[in-house]
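Quick illustration, no need to memorize.
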Amino acid sequence: QYFLRVLLACPSPLGAPPASHVSGAGSEPPEEGQVNTSGPRLLLSTPHPASGSCAAMDRICSALLLSLLLLLQSYGACGAPPQPRGSLCRTKPTDLVFIIDSSRSVRPNEFEKIKVFVSRVIEGLDVGPNSTRVGVINYASAVRSEFSLHTHQSKAGLLQAVRSIQPLSTGTMTGLAIQFAISRAFSASEGGRASSPQFNKVAIVVTDGRPQDGVQDVSARARAAGIEIFAIGVGRVDMATLRQMASEPLDEHVDYVESYSVIEKLTHKFQEAFCVVSDLCATGDHDCEQLCASTPGGYRCGCREGFTLNSDGRTCTACSGGLGSALDLVFLIDGSKSVRPENFELVKKFINQIVDSLEVSDKQAQVGLVQYSSSVRQEFPLGQFKNKKDIKAAVRKMSYMEKGTMTGQALKYLVDSSFSSINGARPGVPKVGIVFTDGRSQDYITDAAKKAKDSGFRMFAVGVGNAVEDELREIASEPVAEHYFYTADFRTISRIGKKLQMKICVEEDPCECKSIVKFQTKVEDLIDSLQQ
């Protein structure tokens, strides 16, 4: 339920509305009524995704703490924290203009992915003449208005129009496109509404190139005109250029993805950004049997004490006892060069925050840690350390390997060694592996990933940055949507997932389990802090 799926199987419509053009460097002279800008040619360096902050890793840990809390639901823990159920987002009336780069550097299949991203954002909006209006500007050396804010007044019409957009495949006049948005796209004649506290004016710029004109001054004029700018960079763009375009605060308005294949991961961010409904439970727009907790644009169902939430995420069942919750948990951590030392320290902190929330003992949770790059290194096996203090100290001492990315070799080690009895694994105890990677594997992962799942291990895949979605899916257990998570960079990793359905409890009667109540309280506090 993180992304709204848009089917793009329909053919392009005949007789698409005529497009208006603005010419830039390297194109035909502008016609009467068109606009132009000038500025220095920008020489941009190859970027590296933002590394994030300690606060970002706190949010990662919060998401995975919740995941751990919810994973072993079948083991009977009760008093379940609310689960995300519905999404009824009412968006504030907005004039939204997408400014999309279709220069030569954007391949046809990549341009299709931009269109999918645009469509999925539109799917999450309230579209109408009195709510949100959407326009699209397509640019390269020239600027073309695909459709204006008043062209389509229904969501279906917008989605059909997006499907018909074709790339221009020339230069990259980003400044010219922003100027066009100021002068034309947001004008009253194109359907723009007068500035008012009741309306937002938003531009989402998607680019992967090196602008052939200036963007700083024209972006400042746009912001001064009341236009909120989000800047999305793909591939070889300079983060400094994105920051010149974007509104403040920059960490909320600048996003980077390594390739167009992962741009759709940003859909959820923009659906939440436009959402203003914050209390669906109070309005009664939910179907929870017992408890309801509102979230931005949605809600979570929960159960009263003595009940457990059923798999439908809505109804509750009275507790009737359950199995113990001993757990063998192994972290499989990517230590390749692309992670970078500062981010590796954040990963270590993330591991220790999860360890802090486990009940570690011979009869309860055991933790093992494996790091891999071009080779695999066991940092410590299951059961070597009997308390959280010793585990955390060992994690802090872990040195960064900083070489290649042999994920397949690491998975094979996990199957053959980490969960073997000689390395501390206990028979009959649930086995959970959390694989954390930031890049494409340099070896074959299919056989080892399949063997891990066939062996009954519950596998979670967490990808950051350049991680490949297909590989994450291959690693993750079924249902895949609940076992794999991706974020474009460390700043947004808190959005990767909200639950993995784990509950940890060791007493015979989970309804009487004090440790799980304490654990749930901690996670609910983390949820509240995330929402704030």
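The chain has 15 helices and 18 strands.
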